[in-house]
Every structure is written in structure tokens, then in C-alpha cells.
Design a protein that fits this description.
Aldehyde Dehydrogenase, Chain A, domain 2; 2 domains; 7-stranded mixed beta sheet; single chain; alpha/beta; 6-stranded mixed beta sheet; Aldehyde_DH_dom; aldehyde dehydrogenase [NAD(P)+] activity; 15 helices; Ald_DH_N; Aldehyde Dehydrogenase, Chain A, domain 1
Length: 458
């Protein structure tokens, strides 16, 4: 697997991938590992997960530097990502027993009935490069603890991250083959999905990739969870705290250098506060520090790949050609690496690229609306439905608006975020199923009904 440091454009040492024969062997070993892992007590599995959290915290700088080297994440954000992975491990180490406890049901007077949550087996996780540790751990922490075993197919530009994640579980003392990283290309995924030893799959990535995995898994009648793209609205109503909205909005658009499914991607602002918000927001975007991702003070690093930066710039150029105005940024930076500056667009036609397509980088189109009703209509006028945010001093009004968003994760006076304590996922073309919280850990289990009838006459 070829790798390039996106901050410099320099080639990194390539990583040897796995052959089809090695993948077949990994599936066999995963299947064998499941037979004993499923019988481990919940207490043992939770203790191992707590140990994984300790490994992550104890080596967070090492793991963060791998992320920064492979995909350009600013080092401060990379360290925070490792810490968040430790948090999700802590969360399920504390709560998995309760979340998967037998659920008593009503039944006949002479019987008892309950639901038992039992693991399915080997699960394939197809994961992206943008949060190369977090996306994996929000899969692995709950589903390994539920008694499943994991096979990771990571993005081809972050193979060292994939190996480091496997190393976390090894250092934590997990049994061999309970978690394996497969260094494979996308062309090898279909055969894995069709293999009888695999029981389910989850994917975080593009809509195209999600449809491909869902089609194959559906033909095999295997459960899937898909977390796909987003074009999240960030709605600012006329009674919003504009300073807070502008500051948080700039962070929400540029977190991870703008490369996030749940980034705020369309800023929809009430006309009464539009000009003031635009000034504050543009100032906040302009004040962000762009630079070397190994520098602790850097806010925005490079885009992860050159082709991704070029695609982003093409979207900006097409949007401008379609009649939008440029307030800030708009050109790749003249420096080594794949840097694109914070960019603000106004007067964006509703059928322009930046309005209709997911922009995966620090580009923010700002729209003017006359009232909350128009804001909701515009917010929902996309095929994607991952997250949404609304800003208002009236919390009841904010809740009313949030209830009308066509999205899986809706926030009032806060940026859209994933948190182990609440379920995460989308609707429409943003996918289906949920990760995190109790909802997430119960996605890949057999919800088995057990009915125990007393013998006749007793």
C-alpha cells in the first residue's frame, strides 16, 4: 500500500498488503476465536476493554503521531481522538453488562419469557481515513464486548493506523484473533462479504461504498450498519447568540481540517441577523491557524490526499461559476502539501455544487432565509440526513425546529458530534442503523426470545 505524507507530499514507506490466501486464513482464525470468545464472561470482556483504554492513554502520543503522518490530522486533534477512543472503551467497560442484560417480558402466568442478547460472530468493519482511530473504536469497543470478533478493512492510505489499532488490543491482552486488521484493497471486500464465516458488516464512508457493501451483504442476507456522508445544516435564527454561533460554527466547519461527515456544511441564517453573523463568522474562519500538523498551535492541516483537495477546489469553482460570491479563501495554498484555506461562499444558488454536494473540506456556503420555516425547508432539501444544528435563545423553539430536521442527530446550540452516551447515525442517503450508546451495542446481536414454560400441573 503506497502512502504519502499530505503535509509535505513526500512518499512514505509502503506497507505490504494481505493476499487472498492470507485473508482466507484470517477468516478461519476469526471463526475459531469466536467459539471461545463468545463464552468469555461479560466481566472478563469488560476488564479487557478497560485495559485497552489504559493502553490508549499510555501511548496516545505514539498513536497520534501515526495519524498525523499518514493523513495530516493536526497533532492536538489526533491526541484528542486517541483520548476519545479511551473514553468509548471506558463507557462500554462500565455499561455493557447492563445494556446486554436479559430483558424480562410479559408472558403467560405459567411461564417466564425474556430476550437474550447474544453475539453473531465475525463482523467486518470497513472504515475511513478521516478519523482513523475513533471510527474503528466506536465499532470495536461495543461489538467485541458483546462477544463478537472483528475484522478491520481500513482505508488504504492509513495502513499504519490499522496495524497500530490491532496493537492496542494485543497490548491490552485480548485473545489472539479476536481483532484482526486486514491490509486489503476495496476489490477484496466483496469476497469477504460473501464468505459464510462472516456474519455481518458495518461501513463508514461514501454513499457509493455503502451501496456496494449493502448490495452484496443484502444478497447474502447479512446485517449491515451504514454511516455515510452528510451535508449538515447549521441554522442560525434571529434570536441566536451570534458570537457563540459564529465561533462554534467556524470550529464545526473546520474540525479535522473540514474532513468530517458531521461537519457543519451549510450555514442557513435568518435575514435579520445575516450580515452580522456573516461578518463574525468570516472573521472566525480567517483567524484560524493553517500550518504544519505536527505543531500544537495548528488549527487546520492539509487535506488528506491531493485528489481530495482538487475535488474540493473543483466544487468551489463550479459554485462560483454558478453565481456564488467569494468572501474568503477559494484557492489551494501555494506551499508544500495539500493545503486548502478556510473558504466562505455567499449568494449560493440552491442547485449549485456547494449546496447540493457534500464538501469534504473547510468550505462554508452561507444562505439567507426569511424565517424559521424557510430555514427548515432548506435544511431538509438534500438527499443526506446525518446531523443538524439550530441556534436560538428560545430552547423550546430550538427543540421544535430540531424535531423537524430530517436527520439522525440534531443539536440545539451545539455542534453535531458523536458521544458514546447517545446513539449516532443518519437517515436518507446518510445510511441506517446506529452506533454508540445502548442502541449501538445491540445492532450486532441475536435478540433471542426465550420462553420457559412450567410443566403441566406444576
Amino acid at each position: 500500500m503506497d502512502r504519502v505524507n499530505p503535509a509535505t507530499g513526500e512518499t512514505l514507506e509502503p506497507v505490504e498488503g494481505h493476499s487472498d490466501e492470507e485473508v482466507d486464513d484470517a477468516l478461519a482464525r476469526a471463526n475459531t476465536a469466536f467459539e471461545s470468545w463468545r463464552d468469555r464472561s461479560m466481566i472478563e470482556r469488560r476488564e479487557l476493554l478497560a485495559d485497552a483504554a489504559d493502553v490508549l492513554r499510555g501511548n496516545k502520543r505514539e498513536y497520534a503521531e501515526i495519524m498525523t503522518r499518514e493523513m495530516g490530522k493536526p497533532i492536538s486533534g489526533a491526541i484528542s481522538e486517541v483520548e476519545k477512543c479511551a473514553w468509548v472503551c471506558d463507557y462500554y467497560a462500565e455499561t455493557a453488562g447492563e445494556q446486554l442484560a436479559d430483558e424480562a417480558l410479559s408472558s403467560a402466568s405459567e411461564a417466564s419469557a425474556f430476550v437474550s442478547y447474544e453475539p453473531l460472530g465475525p463482523i467486518l468493519a470497513v472504515m475511513p481515513w478521516n478519523y482513523p482511530f475513533w471510527q474503528v473504536f466506536r465499532f470495536a469497543a461495543p461489538h467485541l464486548t458483546a462477544g463478537n470478533v472483528g475484522l478491520l478493512k481500513h482505508a488504504s492510505n492509513v495502513p499504519e493506523c490499522a496495524m497500530a489499532i490491532a496493537d492496542v488490543f494485543e497490548r491490552a491482552g485480548y485473545p489472539e484473533d479476536v481483532f484482526q486488521s486486514l491490509l486489503i484493497g476495496s476489490d477484496q471486500v466483496e469476497a469477504i462479504l460473501e464468505d459464510d464465516r462472516l456474519r455481518a458488516a458495518t461501513l463508514t464512508g461514501s454513499e457509493y461504498a455503502g451501496r456496494a457493501v449493502a448490495e452484496t451483504a443484502g444478497h447474502e442476507l447479512k446485517k449491515t450498519v451504514l454511516e455515510l456522508g452528510g451535508s449538515d445544516p447549521f441554522v442560525v435564527l434571529d434570536d441566536a447568540d451570534l458570537d457563540a454561533a459564529a465561533a462554534t460554527g467556524a470550529g464545526a466547519r473546520t474540525l479535522n481540517s473540514g474532513q468530517s461527515c458531521i461537519a457543519a456544511k451549510r450555514f442557513i441564517v435568518h435575514e435579520d441577523v445575516y450580515d452580522e453573523f456573516l461578518d463574525k463568522f468570516t472573521d472566525e474562519m480567517d483567524a484560524l491557524t493553517i500550518g504544519d500538523p505536527t505543531d500544537e498551535d495548528t488549527d487546520i492541516g492539509p487535506q488528506a490526499r491531493e485528489d481530495l483537495m482538487e475535488d474540493l477546489h473543483d466544487q468551489v469553482e463550479r459554485t462560483l461559476d454558478e453565481g456564488a460570491s467569494l468572501e474568503l479563501g477559494g484557492e489551494p495554498m501555494d506551499r508544500e502539501g495539500y493545503y486548502y484555506p478556510p473558504t466562505v461562499l455567499t449568494d449560493v444558488p440552491q442547485d449549485a455544487a456547494a449546496a447540493c454536494e457534500e464538501t469534504f473540506g473547510p468550505v462554508a456556503p452561507v444562505f439567507r432565509v426569511s424565517d424559521a420555516e424557510e430555514a427548515i425547508e432548506l435544511a431538509n432539501d438534500v438527499d443526506l440526513g446525518l446531523g443538524a444544528s439550530v441556534w436560538t435563545e428560545d430552547l423550546e423553539r430550538g427543540e421544535r425546529v430540531a424535531r423537524r430536521f430530517e436527520a439522525g442527530c440534531c443539536f440545539v446550540n451545539e455542534l453535531v458530534k458523536s458521544d458514546p452516551r447517545v446513539p449516532f447515525g443518519g437517515i436518507k442517503d446518510s445510511g441506517y442503523g446506529r452506533e454508540l450508546a445502548g442502541h449501538g451495542i445491540r445492532e450486532f446481536v441475536n435478540k433471542k426470545t426465550i420462553w420457559v414454560q412450567s410443566p403441566e400441573g406444576e
